[in-house]
Design goal:
Length: 426
């Protein structure tokens, strides 16, 4: 196989052309949006490839051991580009690096483990950054941009895709961003846009914004106030925290506040995903009876939280809801709860006892993993429980009702013996 002309399709799968060593040219149509991991790996003679602007995602090693990769003429100061796409940087890349203007995508793991890289300048043209693109860049201290609206639109593959996860400091036109004002031209703030941006102390959101992605302000430990334009039809701020306009969902608690207790307003019906994540000052939270769901990672990393009472109105506890709440000593799960999410109480190492009510029919894997002090688990209903390695399973290996009736054995099963299984009750 020497020449490939792809005429349709949205994606080139992982390792699709791996080891096609005689392949010299590939033409990719505008319909394609992603190129999978290792798609052209070890195509040693590949010297001509057309990557259209439509491509927004390029996987790790997609062009590893091609003529592009092996020919030093294609590397620019230790960085490999193919047309408008930044494919990879050598891990010896050091100091400050400014990407080429017009760059559209940064491939998965592109700058991974570039530990000597100290700063990076990202042009306004970039629309997506692949997962893990900046993972392990331990020397990175600053990220520079020139257009905040363009930054808000970038699609980040995961936390490690955003260079702020290592650098923590964002500069706009050489000014450190502390009081962030989202431009009026922005209608949506992308997921993880400001994750780990510890330079942020306040955020102002204009009325133009109608969509805010998950985990936008995750780990922004200096953030103490979020302000929303009073004309905004989608969101509002109350006491510096972010809510939906109708006040029914608490989206984001201003992480950097130093208050030790917080009472959630009575009209709130749901606590959003990661709403209180990393709020290390909080020791107690009062949840009103109006709340029916606690989102994924809602209190993740609230290391000072010692107690929480979940009201009878709550029906589900999300994945990682109390993940790493290492000082949580007591929790009451009401009879209304039907499911406890995966890793919901993971590493709650101070938790000593838990009662699983009769209403619960599903417990996610590792829900109580690393709860090293948990020695007593009381199941209100010990019959009908079974376990499976698959979350979608409808049948599995039964768990002894007699064993679960013993609170000590039940604790051992949940924390160690069968901790890595999904528990369900028929």
């Amino acid at each position: 196989l020497k020449t490939v002309v792809i005429t349709s399709g949205k994606a080139i799968g992982e390792r699709a052309f791996e080891y096609c060593s005689r392949l010299t040219s590939v033409t990719i149509p505008d319909s394609v949006t992603s190129i999978g991991e290792g798609a052209f790996k070890d195509c040693w003679n590949l010297t001509s490839v057309t990557i259209p602007d439509s491509v927004t995602s390029i996987g790790k090693w997609a062009f590893y051991n091609t003529a592009y990769y092996n020919d030093s003429n294609h590397w620019e100061n230790g960085v490999l580009y193919i047309e408008k796409h930044l494919i990879e940087a050598k891990d010896t890349l050091a100091g400050a690096y400014t990407m080429k203007d017009g760059t559209l995508t940064i491939a998965t793991h592109a700058f991974e483990d570039c530990r000597a890289l100290t700063s990076v300048t990202i042009p306004d043209s970039v629309t997506s950054i692949g997962g893990g693109a900046f993972s392990g860049c331990s020397g990175l201290t600053s990220v520079s941009i020139t257009d905040m609206a363009a930054w808000c639109k970038i699609s980040f593959g995961n936390d490690g895709a955003n260079p702020l996860s290592c650098a923590h400091n964002l500069y706009l036109n050489n000014e450190l961003v502390t009081e962030l004002i989202i431009p009026d031209s922005v209608t949506s703030i992308g997921e993880r846009a400001f994750v780990y941006c510890r330079s942020l102390t306040s955020v102002t959101i204009p009325d133009s914004v109608t969509s805010i992605g998950e985990r936008v302000f995750e780990y922004c430990s200096s953030l103490t106030n979020i302000t929303v334009d009073e004309n905004n039809q989608s969101y509002q701020s109350i006491d510096g925290n972010l809510y939906t306009k109708d006040g029914t969902t608490l989206i984001q608690y201003a992480i950097g506040k130093t208050e030790t207790s917080f009472e959630i307003p009575d009209n709130v019906k749901s606590i959003g995903n990661f709403a209180f994540e990393d709020c290390s000052s909080l020791t107690s939270v009062t949840i009103p009876d109006s709340v029916t769901s606690i989102g994924n990672g809602a209190f993740r990393g609230c290391s000072s939280l010692t107690s929480v009472t979940i009201p009878d109105s709550v029906t589900s506890i999300g994945e990682r809801a109390f993940y790493y709440c290492s000082n949580l000593t007591s929790v009451t799960i009401p009879d209304s709860v039907t499911s406890i999410g995966e890793r919901a109480f993971y590493y709650c190492s101070s938790l000593t006892s838990v009662t699983i009510p009769d209403s619960v029919t599903s417990i996610g894997k590792q829900a109580f993993s690393n709860c090293t002090s948990l020695t007593s688990v009381t199941f209100k209903n010990t019959s009908g429980w079974w376990r499976s390695t698959y979350s979608t399973a409808t049948i599995g290996t039964s768990i002894s009702s007699t064993d679960l009736a013993n609170t000590s054995t039940a604790a051992t099963y949940l924390t160690s013996t069968y901790y890595d299984y999904y528990w369900k009750r028929s």
